[in-house]
Predict the structure.
Amino acid sequence: MAERLDKYISVSFSISRKDARNEIKKGSVTIDNTVIKDAAFKVPQKAEVTLGGKKAEYKKYIYVMLNKPQGILSASTDKQRETVVDLVYRTHKRSGLFPVGRLDKDTTGFLIVTDDGDFGHKVMSPKNMVEKEYFVKVDKPITNEDIKVLESGVTLADKTKCRPAKVKHLDNTEEYLSIVITEGKYHEIKRMLGVVGAGVVSLHRHRIAGVVLDEKLKEGEFRELTDDELMDLANSLK
Ligand code: URA
């Protein structure tokens, strides 16, 4: 579908919609070498658009891999607190950005932020069985018996049934685990571990489907997902 010129400019140059409109009004924007001053103009497919002589590289949607820091909310907006979308919006001025699923405020690691609703909902949908792997530090040793319980699919205190998880010890200790789940119930990992009497000391999401969090990303840093990573995620959808 053809996009309005102000949105096209805002998204391509990561400037606000208001600044895009001002630039258009000033005559800084051309489409196929003709100055266009109408912000509502529909940009034809394959048109060459420039701002101040610089060619626009328009992408309909953006897909971001974020290493979520502790203390930041997995939400689009919040009146008081900083959200993951606030972080991404600093460099990608797009309306409609949202986190694909939620990590608790104190959870770190891999979160996708996008403005592609269809993609986001598919990755989140429990129907699609997308694997999410977490690294978890716990406050008591998790025995092989506990692992069997978690792997058989626990029933939480409120009678919610969890799907069987894949659980293993990491680093040869019983207090550090990899847990793979295929759904995203509220506080799922924390509540599952509660069933075997363990509290979570730290929780970090390491992987979604076949895509591992880029180790070069420090907490709070993000980059766009590569085409290969997007392909892997798309292929993981049943
Ligand atoms: N499970 C939790 O308990 N918290 C998260 O943030 C993610 C999974």
In short: The longest helix spans residues 17-26. The pocket of uracil is lined by residues 103-104, 107, 187-190, 203 (CB under 6 Å). DSSP finds seven helices and 15 strands in the chain.
